[in-house]
Amino acid sequence: MFGVVFPNRSFPIDISTFSQIDTFHWILDMNTFVGEAYDQVREVCIFLLNNFTLPPDKALAVYIQSPGSQFMFVGAVTLARPSAVLSLPWPEPGGQLQLMAPESAPPTAKIGVSVVDLATLSSLDVVAEKRIERLAMKVGENLFNFMQSFCGIDGNKLVVPMDILDRWFKKFQERAKRDPEYLKGFAL
């Protein structure tokens, strides 16, 4: 039905590596791959396999869960978008940890995949909207800090050079070209 790859960390993994919860839900225990270092895994590529046809009104939704947290939607694939590289902004662990019996295993990070109605994706995408908002705030903060270092004061007004936006954008682009990980830091 589907497979996943953790870029720079794994070979393709098919559905057989996931535990099937029921007909439409699968779970991958991250402890299997990285133990407690799950939060170092920042991306997953999910893809539909060639011989599988997802009904046109369905999608495969991907969720992540840190130990003790709720599942959080991170993206989906559909027939129109049969593969996707998704960011994994792991939620803070804790929160709803329950007292466990001594024989039960400690909670671990998980990736969940479920078949959902395509119509429900827009309501699930609140997380993506928040991620975009965080990205915009971080870029804005970067611009503000850059501008602030060139500011002068004229009465109760801050004065910046006319070419400040051009200089900031050029520096921003150069840094992104030199360091591919730089932009990923803004998206977290």
Task: Give a short overview.
The protein is an alpha+beta fold and 188 residues long. It contains 5 helices and 11 strands, in the order ββββαβββββααββαα. It is 29% helix and 29% strand.
If you had to describe this structure to a student in words, what would you say it looks like?
- The protein is built from five helices and eleven strands; from the N terminus they run E-E-E-E-H-E-E-E-E-E-H-H-E-E-H-H.
- The chain starts with a strand and ends with a helix.
- It has helices at residues 31-34, 121-124, 126-148, 164-178, 180-187, and strands spanning 2-5, 13-14, 19-22, 25-29, 43-48, 58-65, 72-77, 83-87, 110-117, 152-154, 157-159.
- A hairpin with a 6-residue loop joins strand 6 and strand 7.
- With 188 residues, the protein is an alpha+beta fold.
- It folds into two domains: 2-124, no CATH class; 129-187, no CATH class.
- InterPro entries: Hikeshi-like_C, Hikeshi-like_N, OPI10.
- This is Hikeshi-like domain-containing protein.
- It comes from Acer yangbiense.
